[in-house]
Amino acid sequence: MTAFERQRSDDRAVFERIMSECERRVLRVALRLLDNPQDAQDAAQEVFLRLYKNLGRLDHALGHEAWLFRVTVNVCRDIARRRWPSVALEQLPERALQPDAYHEAARAEQLDMLRRGLSFLGQKERAALVLRDVEGLSTREVAALLGTSETTVRTQISTARLKLRDFTSRLSRRRL
């Protein structure tokens, strides 16, 4: 085996390890940012394609997760720009509400309201909120990933939370 073939084999093993560790998380972030399963799968595929192409350039000492999150956010922004303003809203599945299913249906309705509310946020607010509140990254990490200041991230998250609260409040009043 030549040195080139050995390096290529090592790169493939590193790529497969990173992909197996991060695939679900990248897909989950993409789904929350795009609110469309097909777009999220396309975004995740693009993220891992870029990872494969740039694997030799990554600084492995700094870690690959930050790089993956930044690329995921950027790819999702690109996809959202191409499809804006259409927003896919999922409908709740029709179920017969049985006494045991009541709490499950209420939770599904809350998740639906949250998903719909996220779709009305701006891309920057949505990315900051998903990365901070859903994925559990620190404000500093989110700021670094989005290329902005911690103050801006806190402002975006605060604004996003207020918009979500107003959206869910209006939607709840309409359903009553």
Put the structure in a nutshell:
The protein is mostly helical. It is 76% helix and 0% strand.
**Range of helix content:** over 70%
Kindly give the count of domains: 2
The CATH fourth-level homologous superfamily of the largest domain: RNA polymerase sigma factor, region 2, helix turn helix motif
End-to-end gap: 70 Å
How would you sum up the major sheet? none
Task: Name the overall outline.
Answer: globular
Q: Number of DSSP helices?
A: 7
The overall pLDDT average reads 78
- How many strands in all? 0
Describe this structure in words.
The protein is mainly α and 176 residues long. It has two domains: 1-88, RNA polymerase sigma factor, region 2, helix turn helix motif (Rna Polymerase Sigma Factor, Chain: A, Orthogonal Bundle); 98-176, Winged helix-like DNA-binding domain superfamily/Winged helix DNA-binding domain (Arc Repressor Mutant, subunit A, Orthogonal Bundle). The chain has helices spanning 3-34, 37-54, 65-83, 102-119, 123-134, 139-146, 150-175. Helix 1 packs antiparallel against helix 2 (37-54).
Write out key terms for the chains shown.
Arc Repressor Mutant, subunit A, 176 residues, Rna Polymerase Sigma Factor, Chain: A, globular, 2 domains, mainly alpha, 7 helices
